[in-house]
Amino acid sequence: MLLGVAGMIGCGKSTLANALGKRFGLQLALESVDADNPWLDLFYDGEQGMRTFGLHLQLHFLATRFESMRKMRAMGGSWILDRTWYEDAEIFARGLFESGYMNSNDWELYQRLYAELLHAPAARPPRLMIYLHGPFETIHERILTRGRPKEKDTDPEYFASLHTRYGHWIDSFRRCPVLRLDVREYDLFADPAAIDEIATRVRLELEKELPQTELWPAQRRRKEPFTQAEAR
After folding, report:
1. Which of 6, 24, 131, 162 shows the greatest Cβ crowding within 10 Å of its Cβ?
2. Could you tell me whether strands 27-30 and 79-82 are parallel, antiparallel, or unpaired per DSSP bridges?
3. How would you label 115-140 residue by residue, b for 16+ Cβ within 10 Å and e otherwise?
4. Residue-wise pLDDT tens digits, 88-115
5. E strands, the chain, where?
6. Cα–Cα distance, 219 to 191 (Å, whole number)
């Protein structure tokens, strides 16, 4: 079984994925955004960085995401995924094209690759999509206080556009059931016990499918979270 956690930069996907993974004994797959991603800082280096390295960054995410999915399916078990391949293509890459940061030839090539990958067995939809949302002002404040240095220096208009795209995307998303969580209604940093109510809501959506490990320490196949780049 696979759960997906989706939402804007700064909305707390990794924190929630970690907490739910520990609560339910799920294996964790994190996004490739640190030292194993050579394109991220280059992309966030102003408008020219977005224009020059947008395709590189999106291809990196697409490749590592699908490598991750293939490896997870091969290993078996139940997983929780920090961000999904749908967001990569249908929000970030499309947004770069529509904003003029990716030319039409690059966008056509990306779309062809994405369409082919969607036919792969590893691309079966998650059992549940947990979508984190909130007002732009709330999420942008979190980016400024908790985000990576390059994210903090990025033009707020980029994030405002991204926020709008996320709203349109989730309203038309039909590939699997969606559980929406308003990020203003909990704070796992200040109150880790807030995971109790969230876990209850998730279990109601997935009754009899989640591993029955809540009364015991999480039994994990791996001691450390799995990252997209480990599949390379």
Report:
1. 6
2. parallel
3. eebeeeebbebbbbbbbbbbebeebb
4. 999 999 999 999 999 999 999 999 999 9
5. 2-7, 27-30, 79-82, 128-133, 178-182, 226-227
6. 24
Q: Indicate which residues carry an active-site annotation.
A: 82
The amino acid occupying position 78 is: S
pLDDT at 35 exceeding the cut of 80: no
Kindly report the number of other CB atoms within 10 A of residue 90's CB atom.
17
Residues 38 and 10 sit within 8 Å (Cβ to Cβ): no
- Residue ranges per domain, the chain? 2-231
Rounded (10°) CA dihedral 25, 27, 29, 30 = 40
Residues 6 or more apart whose CB falls under 8 angstroms from that of 25 comprise: 78, 211, 213, 214, 218, 219, 220
Give the H or E element holding residue 50.
helix 46-75
What SS3 class is residue 180?
A: strand
SS3 153: coil
pLDDT at 162: 93
Tell me which CATH code domain 2-231 carries: 3.40.50.300
Q: Is pLDDT at 225 greater than 60 in this prediction?
A: no
